[in-house]
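Database export, one record per block. Field names are fixed; values are copied verbatim from the stored entry.
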Amino acid sequence: MLTFTIRRLILSVPTLLFISLAIFLLLQLAPGDPMSQVPLTVPPEVKEKMRQALGLGEPVHVQYWKWMVQFFWIEPQVFIDWLTRESTLFAWLPDTSLYDGQLRMISWQTRGPVMDLVVQSLPQTLWVVGMSYVVGVLIALPIGIYSAYRHYSVFDQAGTFVTMIGFSIPPFFTGPLLIVIFAVQLDWFPSVYNTVHQVVDWDSFVIQLRQMILPVMVLALQTTAQISRYMRSAMLDNLNQDYVRTARAKGLKEGVVVMVHVLRNSMIPVITVIALGIPSIFGGAIITENVFKVNGLGYQLLIALFANDIPTVMTFTFIFAILIVLFNLIADVLYGVLDPRIRYD
């Protein structure tokens, strides 16, 4: 397993390099000019200097190489310096001074470092999208297990109906619908997410929970619908296997048969769905974050797309690609953990 993991990590390097090049070239073909937002009162010679400062006057391969150096060399130095100087978890490490003022990845829209934008938006995404994914998985697994065990029952039919709703209705409809019902009519929860709110005590924590409920409900509905269907299908396939009948014939308790033998084998395909869905947490939920005004990664990505902010869009997209490749590897490794028959020799 260790050899397989190392081999996959090595092979992921050229894969990610090819992905980064493809993303960069596609963004270069996108229409629009980042300098179009500059006021008309700015003289042409000043605009030209701004264009050169942003790297717009250089060849494409030079821009790509500069981005690669900034992403893989300069930004890790900034991150290590931050860990050793400001992070309380690594306060025991000696202070480092790796970063010495080199040019970082600069957003064409904010005129600030792109990674600072990622750090500022990530907590909001984890609060909302991350929590919705955890809630969705915790609800979906027991629903899928019980629906398979009691298939064609009233519970199974009701679960099928709810999951079809989750699959069919998009977030741009369920979001405003929940706002109208719970925020406008009932006035139970706020309709706009306060991104500057800080949790410092119990009362502020309750406020944070209240403003999270509506966006979490919207996203958790989709997660529950998807994973519960996979869980139900996998459980049904294994409930009819010969080893299940053999275990029951040996006198094992029904709970042991279902929750130990059947569940472990059924989790193998479900692990893929769960693992590959985790990168979507960091990618944010563009529609939901815009509906509830959550200043997360998805919201920032959409703004960057409209502004033709190539450094920001490329950085965000490449981070998502890294997460997808990483969690693909994690899913493959978990296959071998859950099923001893799987070996990567």
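Remark 1: The CA atoms of residues 141 and 252 lie 23 Å apart.
Remark 2: Residues 202-239 form the longest helix (38 residues).
End of record.
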